[in-house]
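Same chain as my last thread, 71 residues:
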Amino acid sequence: NFNVFPNPTKGLLNIKGANLKGKNVQIYSVVGQVVVDLTLEGETTLNLSNLQEGVYFMKINGITKRIVLSK
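reply #2:
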C-alpha cells in the first residue's frame, strides 16, 4: 500500500509506503495515455509540473489512485 501527497498538487507529488523499491509506477491521463512510466527506487518525489493541469490516475502494483494537478 502507498500514499501520495499533496493531492491536489501543484507539481511535486510525494510517494510514500513500504516495499516500493523495484515497483513500476505509471501515471495515465483521463483518456488513458501513459504520461509517466518508471521504476521506483523506494519512497520518492515526482515532479509533474511539465504536465497540463487536470485529473490523472497513478497505478502502482495493481493499485490505482486519482491525482489532481492544479497549477
